[in-house]
Amino acid sequence: MSGVDSDRAGEKETTSALEETPLTVIEPVSGWSGLDVRELWRFRDLLFFFAWRDVKVRYKQTILGVAWAILQPTLPAILITLALGRLAKLPSAGYPYPLFVFAGLLPWTLFATILTNATNSLTNSEHIVRKVYFPRLVLPLAAVGVAVVDFLLASIILVLLMVWFAVIPSWSIILLPLCAALVVLTGLAAGTLLAALSVYYRDFRHMIPLLVQALLFATPSIYLDVQSMEREHRSPPAVSSDADAATGANQVASETTSSEDDTQRGGGWLMVLFYANPLTAIIAAFRAAALGIACPWGPLLVSTGIVSIGSIVSLLIFRRIEHTFADVI
Amino acid sequence: MSFSLRAEQLSKRFRVSWSDVHADYRTLREDVMGLFRRPLAWLKGTPTDTTNEDFWALREVDLDVAPGEIVGIVGRNGAGKSTLLKIISGITKPTSGRLLLRGRVGSLLEVGVGFHPELSGRENILLAGAIAGMRHAEIRAKFDQIVAFSEIEGFLDTPVKRYSSGMYVRLAFSVAAHLESEILVVDEVLAVGDAAFQRKCLGQLHETTQSGRTVLFVSHNMGAIRQVCQSCLWLDEGKVRDRGEPAEVIGNYLKQVRPETTSEITFDEDERLPFQLRAVRLLDLQGERQSTFTCDEPVVLEMDCVSRKRVRMLFGQIHLLSSRDGALIYEGDSHDRGENPFDQMEPGRWRVRWTLPARLLAPGSYDVHLDFVSHMSDGPRNIFSPGITCTFELNDFASTLGAKRRGHLGALIAWEATMEQGQREGE
């Protein structure tokens, strides 16, 4: 019920026993604070129960039930396959386009679900926030539960597709959980910040569907073979470690070899733009790990850096204004 | 001295537009402008402008509560009672001052917080327990006790959305009542539930303190406070007005409240309520607003109501309390005479009148306590409970005894003498 809580189980009536009970001091909050892991740990049961509740309630009173979890990435995958694979005939790294797209949409759906649920987590629990104390971070964290369950269910389709197209995963499959974790962290970083902000401004709630839509297009690795595009633009095969270096190499290339021209330079900037969104590299890496394509290490490293810094900033802001939630929400 | 809870100069400031639940949310546009003027001001927590928008819910409250003490907290709406409880439970932080607490705090600020309608009773016990701060093992250990107390054994696996409101309240209270904590704070939650269950809950509260726990208990029910509390705290405009013996503090409180309650009270509209009052006023026969009447004129209570949804079996309850000591003088409800206008009241704005006949009550001062309740199969459920709304004074100028008349009734009853035939004196 409260942060003012000791793990003392027994009940003693005597004053001496009361003297032993830990003293909590509640004071005005000032300054910045980081993650209070101990307090969060004390509320692990609540975290679990919130996640469990969301999973239980998710598909209650629906006809399709759990099938919705599978349909969510599958339907857009079919649409994109028809539109871009059949009509635009986009290249797909030598893999069947449906498999290629689904392997990108699967982590994307994980991200989008976490972003949406985490952002709405505080305002959806407005009532609880106003009447009960617990570390508020529990709510966006618990939003991950449903998304992960959905993700695992939808992964079955990926496995089936891989069997159908006879794609044998390489050793890189062991990186898959790591890539998925990075997707979760990205969704949490953005979702936690937006959750905190939407306590103050409901605008952010309304922004979410639009943001998710825009991000789908701004994450080209879902439907484009970004890696081979990148390789093409680096005409003399320069092995560079990140997106910036890639552009650098690109510039050097255009200066030394005069065969390529402005279009190439423009393409280099396009790559930077692509990778400015950390999801681009993370989703490409997820697919690479699943299907055994070469991992885009450079961009992935940069993206991991961006996500880490983003998570810290998001956490700091959340913790800074957390204590006002009950008053403002 | 050992204490269980100690507040030192505890203060809490709200920005009114923020604290008001029903007010519009802040808009981004509005604040982005402010942000440009004073960058990062709100991140630092400093108010962008200290205008009259600031509202001090608590001002420099000092309070010491001994272990095992039950403290009743009284005060008008907005006096800071709920804010104090929220600070104690850690939900909101004070603006200045500090609060020392010994041990774990359990809070019951509202019944059924965190219940999910789609989940079964069993699942909701687990969830609500976790939300209330219980560890999983603790809930498991108390599970049977909770179920027994709530009397819902047969419906454990039914989704609570199919529960009647009475069952819902019982289950919710049971979970909260079984919290293990050294300090328990309880806000006006006993207003819901039927009378029998309320008694059971009060009993449970009483038992709680037998085991040495400290309880802070907010209620508008003076009787309940007098019954269970050892001491009473009166908050007024965020300050401690009085603290001491319940009977004494309540007496002072009622004395102070009476002259300030006017002959009219208005309520903010809350779109979420299916039924509510907008205003209650006292009128004389000419339709003039009054708070002082003579015993020889009727007192008209006029209620402006809004019905937004038809509520089945909705009815009004009126209690007249003596302002002097809170004693119940009269009880009535809208079933008393003929048709009950509130049952399935058509959506719209209504005006309802209730008239206290002349010469019914003794001179004195009376509080009008109102409740609107929906009668479900398993007991009543509060729909709108303003509590004490108006206070009126009755003066007796027509009789010789006048204002000196004691007791509750004011009827002038004739002493009729008839001489028995043939018994004339001196015959």
UniProtKB/TrEMBL annotation, chain A:
Residue spans crossing the bilayer: 63-85, 97-116, 137-167, 173-201, 272-294, 300-318
Gene Ontology annotations for the cellular component aspect, listed alphabetically: plasma membrane
Lineage top rank: taxon: Bacteria
One Gene Ontology term from the biological process aspect of the record: lipopolysaccharide transport
PROSITE patterns from the UniProt entry: ABC_TM2
One example GO MF annotation: ABC-type transporter activity
InterPro entries: ABC2_TM, ABC2_TM_bact-type
Keywords noted in UniProt: Cell inner membrane, Cell membrane, Membrane, Transmembrane, Transmembrane helix, Transport
Topology of this chain in the membrane: Multi-pass membrane protein
Sequence ranges assigned to domain ABC transmembrane type-2 in this UniProt record: 64-321
Major subcellular location class: membrane
Subcellular localization, as worded in the UniProt entry: Cell inner membrane; Cell membrane
Family per record: Belongs to the ABC-2 integral membrane protein family.
Name under which the protein is recorded: Transport permease protein
TrEMBL record, chain B:
Keyword ATP-binding included in the entry's annotation: yes
InterPro entries: AAA+_ATPase, ABC_transporter-like_ATP-bd, ABC_transpr_TagH-like, Bact_Polysacc_Export_ATP-bd, P-loop_NTPase, Wzt_C
Keywords linked to the UniProt accession: ATP-binding, Nucleotide-binding, Transport
SMART domains in UniProt: AAA
GO annotation, cellular component aspect: membrane
GO molecular function, one term: ATP binding
Domain ABC transporter: 43-262
Family to which this protein belongs: Belongs to the ABC transporter superfamily.
Protein name per its UniProtKB record: Teichoic acids export ATP-binding protein TagH
Organism this protein belongs to: Kolteria novifilia
Top-level taxonomy: Bacteria, Pseudomonadati, Planctomycetota, Planctomycetia, Kolteriales
